[in-house]
Amino acid sequence: MPSPFKPSVKLTDNDVTDERVYRSRRRILKQLGFVGAGALLASSTRAADWFWEDDEKKSAFQRQALTFDSPEKYQIDAEKTPYSKASTYNNFYEFGTDKSAPAERAQSLTVDPWTLKIDGMVKKPLTLDYDDLFKRFTLEERIYRLRCVEAWSMVLPWVGFELGKLINLAEPTGSARYVAFETLYDPDQMPGQNNRFMGGGIEYPYVEGLRLDEAMHPLTLMSVGLYGKTLPPQNGAPIRLTVPWKYGFKSIKSIVKITLTDKQPPTTWNRLAPDEYGFYANVNPNVDHPRWSQASERRITTGGLFARNRIETQLFNGYQEVAPMYKGMDLRRFY
Amino acid sequence: MVTLLSKPLRLSARVRKSVKALLHVAAILFLAGLFYLGVTDRLGADPVDTLLHYTGIWTLISLFICLTLSPLSKHLPCGDLMRFRRMTGIYAFVFAFCHFLTYALFELQLNISLLGEEIVKRPYITVGMAALLILLALTATSTSNIRRRMGKRWQQLHNSIYLAMLLGLLHFTWSQKTFWQEPVFYWLIGLSLLILRKDKFQRLLRRRR
């Protein structure tokens, strides 16, 4: 039974004003052309982070408690990555290429109202608004391993629903073969999108894609929460994809559009460096990235420098149940 | 050229010693602090990543300071600045070595076969190792004694500091997923330091011909 969504924190007018002031400050900075210099200084803010405890932690964004089921089969027995780490170590170039930048710059992202459109080769195109994201489907908590192409990994409790359920609701036509995803494009809120020094010079909006059978696989999750509450912006609020057997960059964040299509859709990293990032991007210890080995990974949980956290990487990140989808495929060619 | 000081500024032996002592204390505190925070897991989500970042960045910054000292001592009438050059060069090596140690001990966690494989297989690591070896050679020949004994060849060897800087910058850029990131700013600084020396490079090239 889907339970009604109740915000645990009510924002007051003061919060709204604060945000507006914050935005205008950003705009003034941008007009002065300081954003590029800001990117250079990003590392010094990081330095400040650990030399001085910052009392007024970036708390602009309020996460709300979610109601969800916790199916036994998705509760894995592994040490989880603490929320404090998962929410400060993010690749979300829309907010800067430094891993700590999204946590610093994304806090004022407007997630409500939000519109997620499902269109293309479907009989019933549909649009979900912010409340629908949490109410339309029963939410489940699933603990998944996340393996980044940069050879680090985390273990995280996501809250979400199966993408397959959403696609079924839209009723794909017989000719649909692929699913294309698109992140919000809003340079006012996502400064990296029109500043190549901040956004790493990749093409925006960020786009991703899956084969239809991959999208319909029960493991493929649309996540709306992390650690029992709604997602923070740096982790892809209000809704993101979570495909645990593929490298993290496939799990596109802050999605506004899902399009069913008959052609393999372009994907951001593949477009940038096709020899480094394939369309499939299945976790595979036998196929190295040109610049780093994929045979092993460092698991980020707790513990400092002496934590012996380097572990062997498993094919499909250990999710063997997806293997039949790739039977007969040369995984070296379709990396 | 611009002359900022009308009278040459001399730094007495005592002043030089105190400044050096201060720099030693700062550098050692910085490194010890980094490792201590890293060991106690207070260096961000991934302490290894942070430590790699800062030791790498400070290798480049030390190199930049080192290569700024000779043009600076020419344009400011303060030749004594040159007496700090060896120290900053050696610190570039110290930071680079800590960078390598972090990679071997904490990133690869002493998987020696993987270390060897990565050095050979990954161009950006090969390039970084080459830069480290150059800095090692320069550090090993840095004493006044060896300098005197090597004669002309000492300067020839130590000109390879420019190569080390370029390899270090290449290593930095190559380690990132896209070009337009932090390393771009470091390239701008590094290339300006080379442009300041264009006469020297032209002379070197002419002599070789």
Automatic annotation (TrEMBL), chain A:
InterPro entries to which the protein is assigned, alphabetical: MsrP, OxRdtase_Mopterin-bd_dom, OxRdtase_Mopterin-bd_sf
Keyword terms of this UniProt record: Metal-binding, Molybdenum, Oxidoreductase, Signal
Keyword presence, Ribosomal protein: no
Cofactor: Mo-molybdopterin
Annotated Gene3D superfamilies: Oxidoreductase, molybdopterin-binding domain
UniProt domain Oxidoreductase molybdopterin-binding: residue ranges: 110-269
Residues reported in the UniProt entry to bind Mo-molybdopterin: 90, 93-94, 148, 183, 235, 240, 251-253
Domain of life: Bacteria
EC number of the protein: 1.8.5.-
Entry keyword annotation includes Signal: yes
Cofactor binding notes: Binds 1 Mo-molybdopterin (Mo-MPT) cofactor per subunit.
Its job: Part of the MsrPQ system that repairs oxidized periplasmic proteins containing methionine sulfoxide residues (Met-O), using respiratory chain electrons. Thus protects these proteins from oxidative-stress damage caused by reactive species of oxygen and chlorine generated by the host defense mechanisms. MsrPQ is essential for the maintenance of envelope integrity under bleach stress, rescuing a wide series of structurally unrelated periplasmic proteins from methionine oxidation.
Subunit comment: Heterodimer of a catalytic subunit (MsrP) and a heme-binding subunit (MsrQ).
Record NCBIfam families: PRK05363.1 (NF003767)
Protein name per Swiss-Prot or TrEMBL: Protein-methionine-sulfoxide reductase catalytic subunit MsrP
TrEMBL record, chain B:
InterPro entries (UniProt xref): Fe3_Rdtase_TM_dom, MsrQ-like
GO CC annotation: plasma membrane
Keyword annotations of the record: Cell membrane, Electron transport, Flavoprotein, FMN, Heme, Iron, Membrane, Metal-binding, Transmembrane, Transmembrane helix, Transport
Recorded topology in the membrane: Multi-pass membrane protein
Function as written in the Swiss-Prot or TrEMBL entry: Part of the MsrPQ system that repairs oxidized periplasmic proteins containing methionine sulfoxide residues (Met-O), using respiratory chain electrons. Thus protects these proteins from oxidative-stress damage caused by reactive species of oxygen and chlorine generated by the host defense mechanisms. MsrPQ is essential for the maintenance of envelope integrity under bleach stress, rescuing a wide series of structurally unrelated periplasmic proteins from methionine oxidation.
PANTHER family cross-referenced by the UniProt entry: PROTEIN-METHIONINE-SULFOXIDE REDUCTASE HEME-BINDING SUBUNIT MSRQ
Cofactor note: Binds 1 FMN per subunit.
Name of the protein described by the UniProt record: Protein-methionine-sulfoxide reductase heme-binding subunit MsrQ
Organism of provenance: Alteromonas halophila
One Pfam entry name: Ferric_reduct
Subunit structure: Heterodimer of a catalytic subunit (MsrP) and a heme-binding subunit (MsrQ).
Family: Belongs to the MsrQ family.
Cited HAMAP family: MsrQ
Cofactor: FMN; heme b
UniProt GO BP: protein repair
Residue intervals of the Ferric oxidoreductase domain: 55-168
